[in-house]
Write a structure and sequence with these properties.
By secondary structure, the protein is α+β, with helices and mostly antiparallel strands. Helices cover 35% and strands 28% of the residues. Strands 1-2-3-4-5 form a five-stranded mixed sheet, with helices on both faces. It has a two-stranded antiparallel sheet with strand order 6-7.
C-alpha cells in the first residue's frame, strides 16, 4: 500500500459515494465502538435519500489508494449557550485495516476546515466517550477533553476545545 490518502466531500447523488458511505457506516455499526450490529435493511434502503433531504448534512469520505477507508458524517447545529452555529460530528470511523495511517487525522482536519469556513466552531459527538481519548484527537492537541454523553445530547464544549487546542 502506498498510502495515497485523500478526503472528499461526498456527493451522495453519485452511486460510488453513496455505496462507500453505506459500506463504511455499516462497518462502523458492526464494530464494537458502533454498537456491534449491522445497519438495518430499512437504514440501508433509505439512509442516503434521507441524508440528501436534510440541509446541513456533510459527509466526508477518506480514501487510501482509492479504497474507501473512513468517513465523518457531520450535521450543522446551533449552540444556544454560545449563540453560534456548530458542526456536530455524528458518525466518525476508520476501517481497522487503515488505522494508524493518519486517516483519522486527515478526516478531523477536513471537518475542522469545514467548521471554520462554513461555521464558527466544531462540536464532537461521542457515544460513551470514544473520541476524547483517541490518538487522532490527542494528536490534534485535544487530549483531556471530556466527552459528555447522555440520551439525545452529547459533545465537547467549545470552551474545552479552546483550552486544549
Amino acid at each position: 500500500m502506498t498510502e495515497n490518502r485523500r478526503i472528499t466531500s461526498a456527493d451522495l447523488g453519485k452511486p460510488a459515494h453513496a455505496e462507500a458511505t453505506l459500506s463504511l457506516l455499516d462497518a462502523y455499526a458492526r464494530d464494537p465502538m458502533g454498537g456491534g450490529g449491522a445497519l438495518s435493511d430499512y437504514a440501508r434502503r433509505h439512509l442516503i435519500d434521507r441524508l440528501r433531504e436534510r440541509p446541513g448534512v456533510h459527509v466526508l469520505l477518506a480514501f487510501v489508494d482509492d479504497l474507501p477507508a473512513g468517513l465523518a458524517i457531520c450535521m450543522e447545529g446551533f449552540s444556544t449557550f454560545a449563540c453560534r452555529p456548530l458542526l456536530n460530528i455524528h458518525d466518525f470511523a476508520v476501517l481497522p485495516q487503515f488505522r494508524g495511517l493518519g486517516v483519522a487525522r486527515d478526516l478531523l482536519a477536513a471537518v475542522e476546515e469545514k467548521a471554520r469556513t462554513g461555521l464558527l466552531q466544531d462540536h464532537a459527538r461521542s457515544a460513551g466517550g470514544q473520541y476524547a481519548g483517541t490518538p487522532a484527537l490527542s494528536g490534534r492537541g485535544l487530549r483531556g477533553l471530556r466527552a459528555q454523553s447522555s440520551v439525545g445530547q452529547s459533545g465537547v464544549s467549545a470552551e474545552e476545545v479552546d483550552r486544549h487546542a
